Amino acid sequence: MSAALLIDILLWGSVLGVGLIAFRRGPPVFKASLREGSMDFINIVPRIALGVIGSGYIAAIIPQEVITGWLGPDSGWLGVASAVVAGAATPGGPVIGFSIGTVALKSGGGVPQVVAYVVAWALFAFQRVILWEIPFMPARFVWLRCAVSVPFPFVAAAIAMVIGKP
Amino acid sequence: MSELPSKAPAPAEDAESEPRPGRVRKPIGWSTIIIAALVAVSAALVWRRDGTDGVLDILTHDLSLFGGILPRVLAGCLLGAFISEILPHEKVSRSLGPKSGLMGLLIGTAFGAILPGGPFTAYPVASALLAVGADFGATIAMVVSWTLIGYGRAVAWEIPIMGTDFTLWRILISLPLPVLAGALGRFVYVRLYPQPLAKDDEN
């Protein structure tokens, strides 16, 4: 798991870096933000817990065949639309999302549809929204962000149709 | 998240000026209730399908997952707190605020693209930006940029699984999207909430 280690090193390195900057502004500033950050953490833990444990159950009742089915057969804009739904409904993390995309590509899925799927997954995957975005962000932000993002998997598919395959 | 006014001896300002969305949280909001209900229904369905063992399996798996991400969540929260403390609020609201124009959206996009880590950094930092004066538009650009053109997930997962060609090409296609999403978000936001100075926090 060297990738995970790298992420942790980068992450804590960044914390250390900004922490150092805060410390140089004076210990009161440092202490205040340390307290603030810890309070944020304490407040957020129950929400994250609900998100992690809960989304496992939600994922468990979404059979993967349903997702691949949505991403399968249709070409054209109908195919793009169902790929978007599939992207939002895909349970699990990046391994599952990208693997489904790869399988779709290899089994003859259209490139614009797969692009729409990957982009929709990045924008809307429900587990990320439940687990991370909702706990951390104001509710108003989450729904506005999701609402204004709706056109963009379609835009990406359109660009893919225009500029062609990789 | 506590109340904003307690936000340390921040550089003067505060008093009137910009809206400060976010940061103030009720412990239980509607979204939490809806999620909890969804979880209860799903768990009941799993129980009916797989019995108690199935429910416990998922629970233990998710609990260990939860334990694994907690340190990263802590790091993300500290990162967010430090950033909101050291960033000059006035400058942030000038360069990322409602009147920052295209430049603000571009800065948000660039920031999202270079941000290290995963969701455990992106959202605390986004929430910190909102708190120090970035508007929804620039913050949406940042979040969308992080998820679509950020290098973290691309390097760790997308390239190994989907291949370099597809990934680079997909990122190329995605390049304009964060700015467009941020612009649309800003456009909608000022029309939905024309008086952002009014009480701005619901959850």
TrEMBL record, chain A:
The chain crosses the membrane at residues 6-23, 44-63, 75-98, 110-130, 142-163. Keywords: Membrane, Transmembrane, Transmembrane helix. It comes from the Bacteria. This is Permease. It comes from Bradyrhizobium huanghuaihaiense.
UniProtKB/TrEMBL annotation, chain B:
Its main location: membrane. GO terms for cellular component: plasma membrane. It is a multi-pass membrane protein. It holds the Pfam family ArsP_1. InterPro entries: DUF318. Residues 1-23 are annotated as: Disordered. Signal peptide: none annotated. Keywords: Cell membrane, Membrane, Transmembrane, Transmembrane helix. It is found in: Cell membrane. The chain crosses the membrane at residues 28-49, 69-88, 100-119, 125-148, 168-189. Belongs to the UPF0718 family. This is Putative permease. The lineage of its organism: Bacteria, Pseudomonadati, Pseudomonadota, Alphaproteobacteria, Hyphomicrobiales.
